[in-house]
Amino acid sequence: MSISQELERLTELHRDGALSQEEFEAAKARLLRQEGGQGRSGLVALLGWFLEGLVARVLAPLILAALVGAGVAVFTSIEIGIAVFVLIIVCAIAVAFFANGDL
After folding, report:
1. DSSP conformation class of 57
2. pLDDT, tens digit, for every residue of 37-89?
3. If we measure between CA atoms, which residue out of 1, 69, 4 comes closest to residue 32?
4. Angle formed by the axes of helices 60-75 and 78-100, to 10°?
5. On the CB side of 4, how many CA atoms lie within 13 Å of its CA?
6. What global pTM score does this model have?
7. DSSP-assigned letter for residue 55
8. 23/20 Cα distance (integer angstroms)
């Protein structure tokens, strides 16, 4: 669970009366301390998140599509290989959007 999701959960518990103001503040401080204690500055964490997303959502599908497309082209024709490449890229884009809830 991400820190923002955990903070939202704590806020809901506090709003619903399950946590007192003191309990909420203590839990929030503990959560923020844990997150800050990982030793990553904001810029480094942002860069790591960006690179992770870049690899997972862009580079990996491109490499997969290129390999499969090239393999298909070797055994059939270049046109079919290109079609397979494009199909895999379109599917990867659709999966990325559905995973984020954007579509």
Report:
1. I
2. 555 566 776 777 677 777 777 788 888 889 998 998 888 998 998 999 888 88
3. 4
4. 160
5. 0
6. 0.44
7. I
8. 5
Given a contact cutoff of 8 angstroms between Cβ atoms, the answer to whether 72 and 80 are in contact is yes
Q: What residues have CB less than 8 Å from 89, skipping those under 6 apart?
A: 61, 62, 65
The runs of H, that is alpha helices, within the chain are 3-15, 21-36, 42-54, 60-75, 78-100
CA distance between the termini of the chain: 22
Closest C-alpha among 60, 63, 85 to residue 73: 85
Residue with tokens 């903070």: 7
Distance CA 32, CA 20 (A): 18
Cα atoms in the Cβ-side hemisphere of radius 13 Å centred on 82? 3
User: By CB neighbour count within 10 A (0-12 exposed, 13-18 middle, 19+ buried), where does 41 fall?
Assistant: exposed
Give the pair of three-digit tokens for residue 40. Answer: 């990553």
